[in-house]
C-alpha cells in the first residue's frame, strides 16, 4: 500500500510475516550528475557517522544497541539516469520485545534525527568530522587503483560512455570534485537534497499498514516538485569501436569488452536477454567459460554481465597479454554462435533452471525484495507475480536468444597489459 505523505514524498508498506526483522528505507532520488554524485557520496559518509545529537560513532552505536542491535547504514547507488541516496535501518519486530515497547517508533525517531538533524552548526558541517570523512573517502577512491579488476571495469566504462561525463563517473564521484568541497558547500547541498529530491520511504516486515502510516505521518518532509528524469540511459550506437591499452604492474593482463545493447529492464526481450547473458558468460556452462577458459585455456577467468538500465553488456577476462588477439577473436566467435542459434536445448534449459533458482533465492532475501519493490514502482512492467515471471522465462526460445544476440554490438575494448618486470 502506498500513502502520500507530501507531494512527491511517498510511504510504501509491504506487510509480510516471512521475517523476524523489519527493514525501513528512506531513498532520495535525483538526476545523475557528475558534480552532485561526489557531494552525495561525501554526504553519505558524514551522515552515517554522526548527527547533531549523536556527535560520533560511539553515540550512534549505543543508540543502535538500545534498539536491540539494529543495523544502520547510508549508501549511494545509481540506476540509469538516476542517483540514489539511501538511508536504511533494520530493526527487530515489535512482537519479539516486551509489551509496551515500540522499536518501530523508536527506529523512526532515530531516522528522523539522522536525516533532519545532521551535525551542521552555523551553516557548515562540523569541521573536524568533515575533514576526517573527506580524507577517508579520498583514500577509499584512491585504493580502487590497487584493485585492478575494478580499475579495468571503470576504465572500460570511461570508454563506453565517452559522450556522457555523468555516466562514466562512478556513483561515488571523483576525487577532484570531492577535494573542492567545503563544510559549508556540503551543508548547502544537504539542504537542497532534503528540499528537492523525490523521496520514497519503504517498510517491509510483519507490520500493520495503518500503524506504520501513523508513525510516519509527521516525519518532516515538505512538498517538492517532480523532476522528470527518465530512468533508462539510452546511448546511440556508434560505428567506432573505442579502444584503450595501458601497461601496468600486474601479473595478469585484463581484456574487457563493452557491447551496446538497446534492450532494457522488462522490455519485451528482457527475459531472453537474461538467458542470452547466462549462455554467453553468466554461468559456468556458458560459452565464454567453457570455450575461452576451459577448452582453449586462454583465460584465468571469463564472464559477462548486464546493465539493463544503461543498455550495456560487458565481458571481463584475465589473460596472458600475448594471447590478446586470440582471446578477442574467440570471444567474438562465441557471440556469432549465439547469433546463429548454436545453442543446445540442454544448455537453454540449464540456464533457465539457474535463473529460476537465483530468482527464488532472492524472494527470501528482505533487502532484495525491497529493491524489487522499489523498481516495480519505477517500472510498472516489472510488477508481475512469481508465476508470471517463471512463465515468461520458460517461454523464451533459442530464436529469442538469437534475436537478442543481434542487438549486442561491440562498442569498446580496454586492455590492461602486465609489465614484463
UniProtKB/TrEMBL annotation:
InterPro entries hit by this protein: Metalloenz_LuxS/M16, MPP/UQCRC_Complex, Peptidase_M16_C
Classification via Gene3D superfamilies: Metalloenzyme, LuxS/M16 peptidase-like (3.30.830.10)
GO molecular function per UniProt: metal ion binding
Highest taxon above the source species: Bacteria
Domain Peptidase M16 C-terminal: 182-352
PANTHER family for this protein: INACTIVE METALLOPROTEASE YMFF-RELATED (PTHR11851:SF186), METALLOPROTEASE (PTHR11851)
Protein name: Insulinase family protein
